[in-house]
């Protein structure tokens, strides 16, 4: 090796392991090794966060837009995520700007109450849809409008403790066409974090085996009250 110190066997082994670990990580997110290209995905996941769980966390008080004492959000949109059947794309190259203008973000504050959240969701997920910023957030609004929130869950006046299955069953009962194979819950400890609903590109309900499997394992999940 000219112009440098010869690589030892130990260094070569270390380099191989580092490359292997990096490749394994990428395969975990994209098992088929496909590259992320905007517009190339299989379906959407609409992620609905239970806002009181976030607001009760360490980070909650830092977000006055969502968690100040005069706010009482319940289910809000975390994001609309393009997915593969296995894995998901993120941070795709796009001709759209990375920054979301205030004029485009503010109309979403009733369901997505933070410019920081809106901007991050665009850069990580919206960029992979192949849509413009305006069309992506229009699609996000349309997806949310198609979901009927179970009244007894979204009330938020008092704490509720249910199993993850019961939470999903309430969503399925309220939304004709939704199946238990097309929805999952996630939890933060024993508190409800999110409900994730799978939708086709036409925003019709669909099954999604990988998302369905990746749900909350807690036997009981609590929805903290909104106030």
Q: In words, what does this structure look like?
A:
There is one protein chain. This protein has 227 residues and is of the alpha+beta class. The protein has helices at residues 9-29, 51-55, 64-67, 102-105, 115-124, 133-145, 151-154, 164-174, 209-213; strands spanning 43-50, 75-83, 160-162, 183-188, 191-199, 221-223. A 4-stranded antiparallel beta sheet has the order 2-1-5-4. Strands 3-6 form a two-stranded antiparallel sheet.
Radius of gyration equals: 20 Å
Distance between the termini: 67 Å
Which consecutive residue ranges, at least 5 long each, have pLDDT under 50? 1-28
Strands, total number: 6
Supply the helix-strand structural class.
Answer: alpha+beta
Helix content: 25-40%
Briefly characterize the structure.
The protein is 34% helix and 17% strand.
Element layout with pairings:
Layout: H1 9-29, E1 43-50, H2 51-55, H3 64-67, E2 75-83, H4 102-105, H5 115-124, H6 133-145, H7 151-154, E3 160-162, H8 164-174, E4 183-188, E5 191-199, H9 209-213, E6 221-223
Antiparallel strand pairs: 1-2, 1-5, 3-6, 4-5
